[in-house]
Amino acid sequence: MTPDSIGLVFKALQFAALKHRDQRRKGSEAAPYINHPIALVHLLWHEAGVQDPAVLVAALLHDTVEDTQTSFAELEQEFGADICRLVGEVTDDKSLPKQVRKQYQIDHAPYLSDRAKLVKLADKICNIRDLTTSPPLEWSDERRYEYFEWAKQVVDRLRGTHPGLESLFDQAYQAGIALSSRSLQI
User: Fold this and answer.
1) What is the average pLDDT value for the chain, to the nearest integer?
2) Within 13 Å, how many C-alpha atoms sit on residue 160's CB side?
3) What is the pTM of this model?
């Protein structure tokens, strides 16, 4: 990466940290929310060898519009139209009912750009890992199992994008399902 692209990644990290500063993850540990986008970048860079600055920046920003008061106009002003479009591809429309949003992710996964697919894969892997190690206290084993199955449906529609990430998802999914299956006697 060039010095300019490294600077852009750090700018996105600072922006995401500011936007998520008062948020916590739903897991039992209530970790600072910023740990989640950082985990995506770590996964992409260290485990999957993804070094595309636009993908790394989008991974850091992927929940800002969805979960904070950030607008797409603000993202475009700060990071440009390409990054804004990329974040837009992986952002849920919170005005839609939850089940509609979930089905939309499944249905539209194959039509994401290659870069957006990388962010989506990393997000699903990190979410599965978090649900396996630190599930929200109010989530039953059955709810976790349902999330794992839904995430697999999304990822199955992304197959062929990045074999390394897909393998990491499969490992995380199997670990999560094994844990849930023991609890649910599936």
Assistant:
1) 94
2) 6
3) 0.95
